[in-house]
Amino acid sequence: MSQPILTLNQIGHRFGATVVLSDINLAVTTGETLAIIGPNGAGKSTLFNLISGAMRPHTGTISLNGQAIQGLPVQQVTRRGIGRSFQISQLFDSLTVEESIIAASFWQSGMGHQFWRPLRGAVAEQAGLMARAEALMAALGLTHKRQTLAGALPYADQRALDIAQAVASGASVLLLDEPTAGMSKAQTAQFLSRIAEITKDKTILLIEHDMSVVFELADRIAVLVGGELLACDVPQAVRRNPAVQAAYLGEWRQEGESWPS
């Protein structure tokens, strides 16, 4: 069995007197896709904030490749190998697609100060960065939009670019927060095929409300309810779990979704 690349041990967090996560234990192996699901308010986004360094857990430890990372600032967590995309895309709106990907590579390498120089001049001799940008644009179908400003891209392309920036940062672990939110079924299918190409060697933690996406992509599914880990298992076992169905089914019905058969 592969060794865990990311380990959460007894993670707890609260806002004031309100406990939002309690005794969360997870071990994610290299190359695995772990989907994190649960009703609204279950603690999913808080968990991502703790892993990415945006927040520090009140209890427990988070380890990446055996090294503790809880409490480190976001920049250090990113440089150690964790990248994140957000439910609302975080883009450099005034940069082109090509420049956005290159800028993400610069931040990861510790050359963030170069960002304030004209990017084309700053990377003129950085053949590796250019090659990475070319490969990502080709995989995402964005080569012909390389000179388009990120803020002017269609919604699905903005979502793809957000993830491309995380990949360009050199991350080995990607935190994807509702990557297909707001997309039609056709857009989702195209998006997933593109993203699969650039993330195929990555370890992925995925928050997603579209259960068809979850059951298609996930190797395992972790279910959070009320800040506690209700279950973590392969999709077939989670699908059959009565406790998971009871905890989550009501929300799906309200949103017009059905439990996957």
Specify the CATH class.
Alpha Beta
Radius of gyration: 19 Å
The third-level CATH topology is: Rossmann fold
Q: What is the terminal-to-terminal distance?
A: 29 Å
Number of strands: 10
CATH superfamily: P-loop containing nucleotide triphosphate hydrolases
Percent of residues in helical segments? 25-40%
Outline:
globular
- Structural class, by secondary structure, is alpha/beta
H and E string: EEEHEEHEHHHHEHEHEEHH
Residue fraction in strands: 15-25%
Q: Determine the number of helices (DSSP H or I, runs of at least 4 residues).
A: 10
The number of distinct structural domains comes to: 1
Mean pLDDT: 85
Largest sheet: 6 strands, mixed
Low-confidence runs (pLDDT<50, min 5 residues)?
112-117
CATH architecture descriptor name: 3-Layer(aba) Sandwich
- Which strands sit side by side, in order, in the main sheet? 6-7-8-3-9-10
Describe the structure.
With 261 residues, this protein is of the alpha/beta class. It has one domain: P-loop containing nucleotide triphosphate hydrolases (Rossmann fold), CATH 3.40.50.300. It contains ten helices and ten strands. The chain has helices at residues 44-52, 74-80, 97-109, 119-122, 127-140, 155-168, 185-198, 211-217, 235-240, 242-254, and strands at residues 4-15, 18-29, 33-37, 59-64, 67-68, 82-85, 173-177, 203-207, 220-225, 228-233. The strands form two sheets. Strands 6-7-8-3-9-10 form a six-stranded mixed β-sheet, with helices on both faces. It has a four-stranded antiparallel β-sheet with strand order 2-1-4-5, covered by helices on one side. The chain is globular and about 50 Å long.
